[in-house]
Design brief:
By secondary structure, this protein is α+β, with helices and mostly antiparallel strands. It has one domain: Jelly Rolls. It contains three helices and eight strands; from the N terminus they run ββαββααββββ. A hairpin with a 2-residue loop joins strand 5 and strand 6. The longest helix is centred in the middle third of the chain and has 14 residues. The mean pLDDT is about 95.
């Protein structure tokens, strides 16, 4: 198992971590790898990493989930971040062959930061 450290620079942002995940895999890995966020306000997903589309993801999450008006905000003001990450989930499982991720042509592994800026830990767990 490997841990990746990912630093983010804004409250809601999407970061392509595909290359870092692949570098964390042993060269002979075949099976599946789980990529897991150890945080309740950050998510992991697979999608295209084109810059305009990443901005669209950020805008869509901001539009779908209002920043305020949540009960949890009385505690620490970040309920919106928890709800956004809940929609996406904390992990993905991806096939691997000989240390290479078996992603489709346009697929990338994305960390979705919902409560930044922060430093996040992502666990890469090969078979």
């Amino acid at each position: 198992m490997e841990e990746l450290t990912v630093s983010t620079e804004s409250k809601l942002t999407v970061v392509d971590i595909t290359d870092a995940v692949e570098r964390a895999l042993p060269a002979d890995t075949t099976g599946t790898v789980t990529v897991f966020s150890q945080h309740t306000t950050a998510a992991i997903t697979v999608n295209e990493a084109e810059s305009n589309l990443l901005a669209d993801f950020e805008d869509a999450l901001a539009d779908l989930i209002p920043d305020s008006g949540w009960q949890h905000d009385r505690l620490d003001g970040n309920a919106d971040s928890h709800v956004r990450s809940l929609l996406l989930g904390p992990e993905v499982t991806i096939p691997v062959e000989d240390g290479n991720l078996q992603l489709g042509t346009w697929q990338s592994i994305l960390l979705v930061e919902c409560d930044g800026p922060r430093t996040r830990t992502v666990v890469v767990a090969p078979p």
